[in-house]
Each structure stands twice: as structure tokens, then as C-alpha cells.
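Reminder to self: C-alpha cells first, then the designed residues, so the page reads top to bottom the way the pipeline ran.
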């Protein structure tokens, strides 16, 4: 039990748990954004259609909406719902991309150190301004 507790309290495990929880919450928000905010105006621009109602009925009978087909137990291919899911995915992927660009900015390279040279006697690296080698004490 102690090993399990130590594992759970490690920074990486906690960060992963927080990331999964936040990711699930962001996914719900983005799904609502697509379904409730973005798709209605897009449907309106396309002539007042609701993309989530686009489906192919695989059985006998005709249905005006996906809800009617589901209520009747008809087998359907719901390509409108699939288009909404693709839009959800693209928005979530873009958000993750933007977060990673902000959070994972590369650190600038460290400034170069003082100039160095090799000692002619022992070949150790010494400062270029040195008058004696700190390794073999020979004059440079």
C-alpha cells in the first residue's frame, strides 16, 4: 500500500490525473460550443439545415429526423453527427496545440562561456587569457 501511495503522490501521476480531468471538462465545453454555438449558424447559412439530422436509413421506412428513426429502432448511418464529432476534434486539437505552444516554449540557449584554448603541453582546455596552464603549470 505504501508503494501505491508513493506512486499516486508523485508529481507525474498527479499531473496526469489533473490533465485527464481537465481534458474531459474541456471536451464537454468544446462539444457544447460546436453543437450549441457553431453549428446552428452554419446550418442557417446552409439553408436552415441541422447537420446532426443528416443520416442514411438502412432499413425500410422513411423518417424525417434522426430522433424519429432512433425512436422506431431503425438502423442508420449518422454522418451528420460524425461531422460534428470531426469539428469537435479539430477544435480540441487546436486548443491543445495552442496550449502546448504557450507552455512548452523552448528555453533560449545559454550564453557562450569565456573563450578557451588547448594547452600546448598537456592538451587540457584552459582559458584563452591564461598565462600558465592550471593542469601542468607550464607557461602558455
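Designed residues (140 positions):
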Amino acid at each position: 500500500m505504501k508503494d501505491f501511495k508513493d506512486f499516486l503522490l508523485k508529481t507525474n501521476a498527479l499531473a496526469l490525473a489533473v490533465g485527464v480531468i481537465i481534458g474531459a471538462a474541456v471536451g464537454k465545453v468544446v462539444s457544447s460550443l460546436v453543437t450549441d454555438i457553431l453549428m446552428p449558424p452554419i446550418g442557417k447559412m446552409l439553408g436552415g439545415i441541422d447537420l446532426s439530422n443528416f443520416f442514411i436509413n438502412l432499413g425500410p421506412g422513411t423518417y424525417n429526423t434522426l430522433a424519429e428513426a432512433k425512436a422506431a429502432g431503425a438502423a442508420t448511418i449518422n454522418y451528420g453527427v460524425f461531422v460534428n464529432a470531426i469539428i469537435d476534434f479539430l477544435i480540441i486539437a487546436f486548443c491543445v496545440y495552442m496550449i502546448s505552444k504557450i507552455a512548452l516554449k523552448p528555453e533560449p540557449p545559454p550564453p557562450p562561456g569565456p573563450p578557451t584554448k588547448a594547452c600546448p603541453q598537456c592538451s587540457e582546455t584552459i582559458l584563452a587569457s591564461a598565462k600558465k596552464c592550471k593542469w601542468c603549470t607550464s607557461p602558455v
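The chain has a mean pLDDT of 84.
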